[in-house]
Design brief:
- α7 (about 150-165) links the parallel β4 and β5.
- The chain has about 325 residues and is mainly α.
- The protein starts with a strand and ends in a 7-residue tail after the last helix.
- The strands form two sheets. A three-stranded parallel β-sheet has the order 1-2-3.
- The chain contains twelve helices and five strands.
- The chain is globular and about 70 Å long.
- α8 (about 210-215) runs antiparallel to α11 (about 265-290).
- The chain folds into two domains: about 5-185 and about 295-320, Rossmann fold; about 210-285, Tyrosyl-Transfer RNA Synthetase (Orthogonal Bundle), CATH 1.10.240.
- The protein binds tryptophanyl-5'AMP (TYM).
- Tryptophanyl-5'AMP binds near residues 10, 22, 23, 135 and 182.
- Tryptophanyl-5'AMP (TYM) binds near residues 19, 152 and 183.
């Protein structure tokens, strides 16, 4: 049987090039090799303050971006988390074998809790259990994510092992797949990661050509090539160039850097153009897909049905293993 891939992304409205390079771009390649499921994880997006009026719009926009980037719903299953309620049922069952201590230790929980002005709700702490359920319910072998999700994936593996040893060997232990661009740094502070919650740190997948160029021009670098190791801002620009541009430009500019003759304005102009060139067609395709919301909705409903078929089979095994024997209607 082909190995299975699962990954998800939150519909938070500011999908950025870090999300694209760390995850979506890789999904496009993986769908040809593996039995793949990609999910818009809307239930994860309600663990912090959010606007319910905008939720549906954001779900559709994100699904359209994923398709515009090259995920083909005839190859991979593309669906929305809330349309497969088995995820939340499994979350409860797994919550009962997850220690509070390990949830409290999660870096993202600690960081996001600090930013919640209106109080921290239990959903934010339980977030990684829902993520574990997303993955385990499809018995996924491989999970392509950015570096910031590795800790959550470790916890998924811990929950997986605990379930298998307490009840029955139901789940395979999922492994992460990281890209070379697994940690894109913030443009305004290259010592932290690019993040949708930090204004000025990211280039959004929706930004127009001028905005992209301008944001790259303003990216924080350093006083100039000094010989030796690159500073984090310059290194980040090279990572972006490797991902979006062509190899000849990377080679040339890296040589200029070594000779200490590289002008950062030239580097930035090349990086800016490379990003514009790759994102503009994705943006246009996204607009075309969004112009037919009924077709898009049909695709997601279909994806949800296919996903649910797999999810309900796993859930039946889990319920049985945990001692719940009542017949399901
Ligand atoms: P989310 O929505 O925050 O991010 C989606 C993906 O983008 C990656 N990413 C980055 N990659 C490189 N550089 C960055 N600066 C950067 N910022 C974000 C993330 O690592 C992620 O792969 N909890 C997940 C969503 C999720 C999930 C899952 C993922 C829910 N269930 C099951 C995999 C499997 C999240 O919040 O991703």
């Amino acid at each position: 049987m082909a190995q299975r891939v699962f990954s998800g992304i939150q519909p938070t409205g500011n999908i950025h090039i870090g999300n694209y390079l760390g995850a979506i771009k890789n999904w496009v390649e993986l769908q040809h090799k593996y039995d793949s499921l990609f999910c818009v994880v809307d239930y994860h997006a309600i663990t912090v303050e959010y606007e319910s009026d905008l939720m549906h719009k954001r779900v559709l926009e994100l699904a359209a971006t994923i398709m515009a980037a090259g995920v083909d719903p005839n190859k991979a299953i593309l669906f929305v988390q809330s349309s497969v309620p088995e995820h939340t049922e499994l979350t409860w069952l797994l919550t009962c074998i997850t220690s509070i201590g390990s949830l409290e230790r999660m870096t993202q929980f600690k960081e996001k809790s600090k930013r919640q002005k209106g109080g921290v709700f239990a959903g934010l702490m339980n977030y990684p259990v829902l993520m574990a359920a997303d993955i385990l319910i499809y018995k996924a072998d491989l999970v392509p994510v950015g570096d910031d999700q590795i800790q959550h994936l470790e916890l998924t593996r811990e929950i997986c092992r605990r379930f298998n040893s307490m009840f029955k060997e139901v789940f395979p232990e999922p492994q992460p797949i990281l890209t070379k661009a697994a940690r894109i740094m913030a443009l305004n502070d290259p010592t932290s990661k690019m993040s949708k919650s930090i204004e000025g740190s990211y280039i959004s997948m929706d930004d127009d050509d001028q905005t992209i160029r301008q944001k790259i021009r303003r990216a924080v670098t350093d006083p100039g090539p000094q010989g030796g190791e690159m500073g984090p801002g310059v290194k980040n620009l090279f990572t972006l160039l490797e991902a979006f541009g062509d190899a000849a430009d990377v080679k040339q500019l890296a040589e200029d850097y070594k000779k200490q003759s590289l002008r950062y304005s030239d580097l930035k102009a090349t990086v800016g153009e490379a990003i514009v060139e790759k994102l503009a067609p994705i943006r246009h395709r996204q607009a075309e897909i969004l112009a037919k919301p009924d077709t898009l909705t049909d695709i997601l409903v279909e994806g949800g049905k296919k996903a649910q078929k797999i999810a309900s089979e796993t859930l039946a095994e889990v319920r049985d293993a945990m001692g719940f024997k009542m017949p399901q209607k």
